[in-house]
Records
---
Amino acid sequence: MKLSAYPAFTATAFTSRLAYRNQVWSGVFGELVATFAFIAVWTAAFVGRGTVDGVTLPDMVTYVLIAGPLLNWNTTRYIREVGDAIRTGDVTTFLLKPLHYPALLFFNQLGNNAFEQLTITLPVAIIVAFTVGLLPPASLAHGLLFVAYWVVSWGIMFLIATLTAMLAFWLLTAFALDWFLRGIMAVASGAIVPLWFMPAPLAAVLGYLPFAWVSYYPSAVYLGKLDLPAAGLHLAIGCIWLAALAGILTWLWSRMRHRLIVQGG
């Protein structure tokens, strides 16, 4: 199948989500509750303090929105669907079609995430901005770099989620894998607690793992906690992680595809 045909899967995934409007309302409500809960926690933590380690309360409110709804890519449904396809053997049907399964997953998930960003994240951001207030990017350059980090964040999260889901080929379940990944991401990505508040040895280790490029580094760049040279360097490292994870996925899928053919006779 030609590459030009794959965007159709993105459009289909986006429009199919329109049929479940109640999920949109529940998604917005859930994100609002979680976001304001974290804002309340950090507000309490900053009582009587102007700054903590050079970080202000407005910084943390903005960080909560960026690292939360904006960059907290929801992969639960995706991982379980891919895991179920592998467990039931439905994935073998894709071997009979002129398409590349990981590429299909990429464009399909792109449509799902685009839908969630427009219908859930954007309304939450507007409500938080008008009720609590949000900071603009530290500078125009930081804002432009944040866009690049945002793309890298989505790519790394997609690859990590896909690799996790494909482990179901050996474990025959994706339920536990989803919980395991969410636990790791909550801590290692800085989605709940930024790395700058973590113990220095732990932050040093997590700062070089790919999870940090999903939430922490994009948020830190937006807020100007990294100067431009450091932001450019870490963006390059994030791209290296992106290429490495893509290579691992390509290798893993080639092994899985051949084993599926053998098992199918």
---
Amino acid sequence: MSGEAFGLTDHAVPATGDEPVDPVVNPQSVYSAASNGQLNGSYNYWARIYVRQDGTDAANNRTRFYFEARLEMSGGGAYNNDQDQYYAVYVNGGLHANGHFRLDYNSRHNTSRVLRTGTFWMSHDSNGYRGGFPTELWIDTGHPSVGDGWSGQAWVDADRIAKVPGKPPRPTFRSVGTTEVQYNFQGPSDNGGSAIQTYNHQSATNTAFTANVKNWDDPGSPAIASDLIPGTGHHFRFRARNAIGAGPWSDTLSQVTMPAVAPGFTVVPKPTGSEAVLTFTPPGGVSGVTKYRWERRVKGQTAVATGDTTTTPRTITNLGPGTVYEWRASAFVDAYQSPWTGWITATQPNPNTEPGVYFDGSTADKTDVDYRWSGTAGKSTSEAVGKRPDGWTASFSNGAGGAYSRVTDSGLTGDYAVRVQITADETAAGGVTAGIDPNFPAAVIENGTYYGTIHVKVSRAQRLAAYLRFYNSSGGAIGNPVMGESEVVEPGRWARLMASGVAPAGAVTAIVRVMDVAGDGWVAWKGGDAFRLDGAAINLGEPYPYFDGDTPDTGEWDFQWDGTPHASVSSASALEVASYDPLADPDCPRPPAPPRPPTIDDICIIDVGTWSRYWAVIPETYVTEWLTMVPTIALHIGDAPARQVRIRIYPNPLDQAPDVFIGDWISEQIVSYLPANSSLLIDGVDQRVWAEVGLGPRLRADHLLYGSNGEPATWPVLSCGLGYLASFDVPADAPPVEVEIALTQRRS
């Protein structure tokens, strides 16, 4: 026996009169097959089976097939008209239909005889597939002319019944913003037998996808989820949809949106004045910050310098000592950039206190400045750094930054004082404290009532309070600080602040400090603010008037330094007072003690570390030997102000050029402030100062002129037929200054 099988599409099968009509659903393609097998009789008889796909029942996941069983003959021959012959149709190995037929004389010449037609259903798998299967016809006649045999197997397939798409893979993160997340996705490996029409996407703030749910369609990657909640964890999933419906959801992608806030940011200038340390913290505590960006500008200017950093803290170099900068920062998470912080004001310390005086690392230290090499001695740059005052300290928190140093000729009693410079803006009260260092405390005894006093002088009004803190023998603080009554301290005067309390059990030492306190009159410290401290004391029993080791002794008290003069604790010892003075002159009372020399301290006079110098040459031909000459100086400045302009007069008997001149000045005048677009006339004849600002009227400006260290201004005269030089030191960030000098003769 032999057989054949074949598949047909768009092939019209000749009608036999027994073919089914109106299938459930027309198939997408028509699959059919046929097979012929010769019987083993003596004449040419064949068994033929024909099968084709006939309709689809998608709802029940099955396909209907039509079959046709035939006996094929080639012409006359033996016949049997009184005996039934047997046939059977098998589908996929199982009996589907059988029956009997008779061969009579009249049908022996038929070329084909239909034995059986019909339909049957075949189920598909869960994915809609139906693999090929065999159908065959068996004929059993027992007649020697016809014989027995089978058709062979006719294998036929079926169209896939379309299903919903399969489960797609988990999406992958792409980028995040405050209200938007983007992610990449790809379709499932199985489209369900029907083309993907779109993709459904869903986001929610919980894994059950019941809170803050958003639904949208994105037909292609990437998907963009928008209108999300800033700083909140979100979950994302998607599924594919075809003509049948939507498939299962993908696994979930989770991502926290960026908070709509700026990063944490602090600026702390270094004492050298040329560097500042920037510290960043992630916005809202999120992770994954890829870099920070900072911007800087000189206060009052618009030009901005910028930079990126992946590390924190970050040290910025090449800054200008004494310059007031404004800073701000932003954070990046991949392509997302957070909002900027507000501008933070920070003043660079100004360690160079003597413009025009050369120094290097070998220069002898001064009372308020230390000089050092930055590297190898004699072969590196040098630094001038303000000295730290012995026994004093300051601390900065709540965003504040700053430095403290010792300054001269500005103390409560004319010696030294502590200058606390604020360099970064404070965000809340209590951020700046300063006073006695715990390493240099005062001794106390348990249960004693102590009064801590400290003197402060501020650059602007601030609410301040003093506080006491007690320590045990191990140096550990005992309890909370004992706060004194706060008050608003006005600028321009020394104010005495006080706190009192009982030393607790275990207390052996105590310190006193000052701090800013919330309340009416409190304003956050800003970069550029400053205050000075002096005269800290801790007294037992009552608050005594200020004294130190230099305070003149009296008949009742002996004052002395406990260690190094001006650099140690002072004490006052009570003296026994005799009922009478054996040395008293009955006719002439003891003269009073002479007064101390007066001291002047003006907080408007500050140090300038980076400056430009202009020179004016006064030839000796303009200065006669027998007459004195009085200089009148005019200064003109452009569209920005200048501060601390120093004017110095130098005798120049050798007529040296300014760039090689070596000599000391004999007169110094300081202009504390030169307004923008102004002219200032320093009239040496009338010893008056006049100013014109813009096109305004002529104004008295005597209050802008000082002498050295803030003392009253002095007026130079030129004489003896010598040549002179005049230098004008102007801060480097000020515009150029035009200078004019006129000389007036005055008889000696």
---
Amino acid sequence: MAQRTRQRETVNQELKNGELDWRQIVDSIPGLVALLTAAGNVEMVNRQVLEYFDQTLEELRHWGTSGVIHSEDLPHVIEVFTQSIASGSPYEIVQRFRRSDGVFRWFQNRGFPLRDANGQIVRWCVLLNDIDDRKHAEDAVRASERNLRRIIDAIPTLAWCNLADGPNEFLNERWHEYTGLPPEESHGWGWQKVFHPEDLPALMKRWQELLVTGEPDEIEARIRRHDGVYRWFLIRVHPFRDESGTIVRWYGTSTDIEDRKRAEAELKQTYLHLTEAQRLSKTGSFITDLLANEHNWSDEAFRIFELDPAAKLTVQMIRDFIHPEDLPSFEAMIARAISGIDVDFVFRIVTSRGAVKYVRSAARVIQPIEGRPLFCGALQDITESKVAEEALNRTRSELAHVARATALSALTASIAHEVSQPLSGIITNASTCLRMLDGDPPNVNGARETARRTIRDGNRASDVIQRLRALYSKKEFTLEPLDLSEAAREVIALSLSDLQRNRVILRSELADDLPHVVGDRVQLQQVILNFLRNGSDAMVGIDDRPRHMLVKTEREAGDRVRLTVRDAGVGVDRQNIDKLFDPFYTTKSGGMGIGLSVSRSIIERHRGRVWAEPNDGPGATFAFSIPCRPETDARASR
């Protein structure tokens, strides 16, 4: 009996020691730990549980009603716990426990059974891990992801997110609206079906390359709209990496560039047309910054200079091509351009093969850059037209000479009359002078006065001959300052006798304050003479009204002067008025049709314009206008 009592005491002591060992082990675990009976009743909790909840073990055994579990979570906890105790299966629940200060925090509640050697459940071990910070972080991440999706959906373009290995994870609403493809058909690799079959192989090849290199990139491809229409898109993709540098996502956008592609195609076509037009017209274009010595030339501009388009242009390189005789004017043009003045001039270049070309250049300031003028301009090869123009000028000179010779026959009688009068006076005065000297005594004073009259008449005859010689001599185009009113007076004096024979009443309104013009006096006088003769001829058959003629000079706006000849003749037909200055067109029965044509050539050579118009009353008006101080034109001196 005593022995049995000692054995029971020994067993009780061992149980107490074991329980003490369990308590020490459980209290040493860095977390909340509880031991339950096989039926699920709380048997033991560690010190951390008592401190966290600030409740006794007895109070904790009534966890279902003590309020330590959040009321929203309690039904689910009881359901899972009951099923696990009944089935003997471990459980795991995420729930909220109330701390001693009344604050609920999220915990991971995991329970698993402890079995004896026979597999019978003898206890349940419950571990409670505080995951409140992690739970809030996860909630924040999920909220951030939701916000990110809302942001991506709000982007006014097609946006998407792919996984690190390539398949799609997310496509924004605009992508689905545009393509008409629902999410279940487009996620993963389903998005490929909206791309144009011709573009998809290159797109997928590049996508596979990016998955290997991890580099951002962009590519153009056509995407089918919901109505079946394909449009061009610019697809940009960029990797998103974590803190270690590993790619975790690919983000991208698809931007509609259909309008830009069409504009580029139209621009390319326009450029091709422009290039062909420049080639046909031998006109090159350029943009240049002289101070920065930067020059952007078109292909045709390079062809004109016979330069390699890859050559790096400089002002000195261009200067080396200029004909030595034109170099001073070229340097002056560069100086004007650097000061910001528009330029327009003609010069010659000598190519590398020794060919001489005439080039016209015009440049305009399009905008200043940092105080420097930026020019846009054109270069035109005018060699062919220049050669033709020189040949035409020679022909015109010959025609002018023919016209002067033709006019000479018509004015012979008038010239003879003009010369015969002073000659007759000379003879008469000379005879009178001799008689006075032969007298006894000689009349010296009378002879002296008669000699003076002889000299006067001799000078009159000399002036007539000089005018005639100047008008009908064959001379090159010579520029000199002249008074247009004075030149007109000389022509009127030469033509006056002829006009009087035709009963022409001439009235002149010649301005005395005209600015001088620079021109060829003889050729301009030929034009005036032509106008006078035409006006006189137009009034030959007029007998029912006075044959009035007005010669007028005046100043025009814009530093120009005008000469007008107005007659009261038969007038001109408005329908044929534009033909009057055409070669060989005439309204006279015996006319050659070259006088007005030559006149037009002369005036145009003086940078002027010539015209005719019917009067409000009878007759017609012929006029020309030329600038007072025209720019020096090298062509005019040849």
---
Amino acid sequence: MLKKTALAGGVALTVLAWSAGAFAATPEEEEARIARLEAAVAALQAQVQADSQTAAENAALKAQVGSLEAKVATLEAAPPAEGAGSVAFPKPPASANAPVVTSTFANGEPGIATADGKFSLNVYALVQLDTALYDQSQAGPLATDLRRDGPALGYSSSNVDNLHARNLKNGDDFRRARFGFSGNALDDFQYRVVFDFGGSGVENAGQLYEAWAQYSGFHPFKIRVGAFAPLQGLSDQDSTAAQPLLERPASSDIARGFAAGDTRTAAQIFGYGDHWLASYAVTGRIIGVDSSAGTGVAQSYSDQLGMVARLAGTPFYGDDWRIHLGAHAQYIVTPPNTTGPSVANATTPLTGYTISLSDQPELRVDGTKLINTGNIDARHGENEGAEFAAQWKSFLLQSEYDHFDIQRTDLHTSNPHFAGYYFEGSWLVTGAARKYNTATAAFDAPPVLKSIGGGGIGEVELTVRYTDMNLNYDAGQPGTAPSTSAIRGGDQHILTGGVNWYLNPYVRVAFEAQHVVIKRLSPDTIANNVNGYDVPIGARIGQSYNAFAVRTQVGF
């Protein structure tokens, strides 16, 4: 009986070995099948020759034979795959209730996506309401209160900033009110469309803010085309929802508007890894509306053409620390032309190619620009910048320096140059750390580990910053008329301190206080015009004041 059982087991092994290779088609599979047959025969011979099995061992062999016979039956019942040399087992039918579209929450943005993930649509929103109080000395008569703004100091109905400079607006402003959508289209394509209804000093009627398409099939590089802010600098790439203070530093804000910045048409190729980022973009005009007037921008005679490049990364890093180093550069190949050919002489080469640099004092409830070069006749423009940041646990220090050169069309005047920098620090007292975003080589908002209502108090961050942006060139001395090459745009110094309270990942309240000092001489070359609103030649038109602001922010 024992030998019969052994024989049956050996036969089952032999049949199983044959069945497992019955559909082999390649020489390799045929050799494997022969090897299995030889092994089964050897096992059969060993069991037939054995004579010391006990009753228990005999029962175990019977059980093994039954299991092998069942496996053989399964193999025989399974049909081969079409056109293949292997056994294919039928797949279970798809459930009739399987969802075609699923809800998502990619990067904190709610949306929907197809079950295979090839198509998605995420909703984006960011609303920031700023309220501010400007602590200025009381405005006096124009003849004695010489605080002014703008390159043209005469007052007119179209130039009211000179009056605003003496009485900055207390109140509120929806700094940003952005709504849009983004997502994937097939495996390697992404898109984004955003509209903005916010503004500086007063809200816009609404304008297209971002509209781009991106191809990501050339890993690790991506190609983006449309209207967007090209990768330009460290502070420029801070998410507007995650900036440590209410506005970017003046030097960075002026740099990003040179040939990059918001609503800029561009074509960009960029790539990044865990510790590096490289980008290059060809840029054009700024789309949208005049933020000061809320009306359409007049068509230019020639749009700007520029180039923007950046190389940055974290070459030194550890488990809870990193050092960021970076460099960026911009070149304006052709400045925009707003005036066209000479009206007096049609044969005169095109005039009106200009570059201007200006900024509000890092708070936009009042949109008055207190430093401003005015339009500089220009053939080309250059910007170079350096970036540095050091993060250790919940502490972050960062700084940037930017230098600007303008090549004038008037060969009888010298080419002006300007420079600005900032130092900024933050500390998350609740122990979290700002996230480093490798896709932008910059620092995003911290994760909120314990939200209000979820057993915690959110995250609290203390911030401080000092900035210096000097738009003076060959300014000369007080009381003197400017030279033909002079640019009296102003030298602005700002010291700011703030507190950020992240209640949860979507709600933030920020408090800020700043001290502003502006040193500037009058750019006018005459003492008074017929209206009597101009200031004396070379008069000091700068000022100093304090400002206090609160921002309430909701975004996802």
